[in-house]
Amino acid sequence: MADSFDLLGLPRRPLLSEEEVGSAYRKLAGQLHPDQEGGNEFLFRELGGAAAILRDPARRLRELSNSPSRSQLPSKAAEFFPKIASVLQQADGLINKQSTASNALAKALLAAPLKQLSADLNSALYHLQEWKGSLDQDLVKIDSRWPEHDPDEIHALADSYAYAGRWETQLRERKLSLESLSG
Q1: How far apart are CA 37 and CA 48, in angstroms?
Q2: Three-class SS of residue 183?
Q3: Which residues contact 46 (CB under 8 A, 6 or more apart)?
Q4: Residue 71: pLDDT above 70?
Q5: SS3 of 16, please?
Q6: DSSP H or E segment with residue 1
Q7: How far apart are CA 29 and CA 114, in angstroms?
Q8: Which residue, among 57, 54, 48, has the nearest Cα to 28 in the 3D structure?
Q9: Mean per-residue pLDDT for 168-182?
Q10: Contact indicator for 5, 21 with CB cutoff of 8 Å
Q11: N or C: which end of the chain has fewer CB within 10 A?
């Protein structure tokens, strides 16, 4: 795949807004769409992939550093991991029990644990959002010094964003599953 920054005509920087990426994508997508005269399906797909990379801070930072994921657990992620893992495991168990409960009594007995699970999911998401806010601040700091940077700092921030994003998705999925059972 071509360099995502070059493909979209965007500067090679750690911090790009959704508007910058979206605007560059829409401009070029309109020209390259396969249904347009002179369109190019291959480049159109490449363009979509480039936009996806640049919209995701972890993937954007990895592209800037020209290195794949190191999958090292950053220290802050290591602090969150036991709590996140516990909430996800508890969610999977309770959601499975609720979905297979065969009578009203069995479902009623799960009401209190499910209510607590909802609170635990909300709490974990809140703390995760706080962490992501601090990651965003770190990204702004790195961007303000750019192109001067510490590659290890870039890798650690990319890894942190990757863990935070993955966990946020997992927690939101469990929350949605829980809401669909009680709705």
Answers
A1: 19
A2: coil
A3: 1, 2, 7
A4: no
A5: coil
A6: none
A7: 45
A8: 48
A9: 92
A10: no
A11: C
For the beta carbon of residue 155, count every other beta carbon within 10 angstroms.
18
Convert the pLDDT of each residue in 77-100 to its tens digit. Answer: 999 999 999 999 999 999 999 989
Q: How far apart are CA 81 and CA 167, in angstroms?
A: 9
List, in order of start, the domains of the chain with CATH numbers.
Answer: 4-55 (1.10.287.110), 75-182 (1.20.58)
One-letter amino acid of 88: L
88 vs 170: CA distance, rounded Å: 8
Q: Which residues of 73-110 are buried (b: 16+ CB within 10 A; e: fewer)?
A: ebeebeebeeebeebbebbeebbeebeeeeeeeebeeb
* pLDDT mean over 127-139: 97
Q: Which two tokens stand for residue 139?
A: 């990204």
What percent of the chain has pLDDT above 70?
A: 96
The residue length of the chain stands at: 183
Hunting for tokens 């750690």 — which residue is that? 14
